[in-house]
Amino acid sequence: MTTALAVRPLGGRGELDVLVASGAAIAIDFSQPGRPAADAFSALFDRVAGRLPDLVAARFVLPAAADVAALFGITDAPALVVFRRGVGLYAGPATFPEPQLEALLRRALALDMDEVLRDMSNDRATVSGGTHANMTCPTVRRGPMPA
Questions:
Q1: Which of 61, 83, 90, 142 sits 20 to 30 Å CA-CA off 19?
Q2: How far is CA 102 from CA 37, 63, 107, 120, 123, in A?
Q3: Rounded to whole angstroms, what are the CA distances from 114 to 29, 33, 106, 117, 138?
C-alpha cells in the first residue's frame, strides 16, 4: 500500500539548513517543471518516497533555487540530494529508474550512521595529518547506482 505523500517545497537555503540540522533522513528532488525528464523524475520520486515513511521528501524548483543547487554542484534538473543525520550521502543527477531510486533511498535509511560518522572522523584526522589528497566529501561521491 502506498502512503499519500506531501513533498515539502523548500524556498531557500535557510529552510534547507533547518531541515538538514534536524537530523532526519531527507531526500530532495531538484526539479524544473515543464522539462519532461524533470517532471517524470518528480512523479517517480513522489511514488517512491511515499513508500518510505521514515524519509522526509522535499523539493527545490529550479531555476529559482539555482544558488542552493550550486552548493551541491547541481547545474541541471532532475537531480537528487540525500542526507541523513546531517551527512550528505548523495548529490547528483537523477536519471535512474524507479528500482534504483528505491534501492538508493532504502540503502540510505539502512546505513549504520554511527559507523559513517566514525569513518568521517577518521578521514578528518587523516586530513589534519596532511594526507588529505584521498579524502572526498560524501556529498560529491558519485559512482554506480545500486542495482
A1: 142
A2: 18, 26, 8, 25, 29
A3: 26, 37, 17, 5, 15
Q: How far apart are the first and last CA of the chain?
A: 23
- One of 3.30.420.10, 3.40.190.10, 2.30.40.10, 3.40.30.10 is the CATH number of 8-140, namely 3.40.30.10
| Selected residue with higher pLDDT from 126 and 122 | 122
The ranges assigned to domains in the chain are 8-140
What secondary structure letter does DSSP report for 31?
A: E
Tell me if 145 sits within 8 A of 96, measured CB to CB: yes
Q: Scan for cell 535512474, then name that residue.
A: 96
* CA–CA separation, 31 and 36 (whole Å): 10
pLDDT digits (tens, 9 = 90+) for 88-99: 899 999 988 999
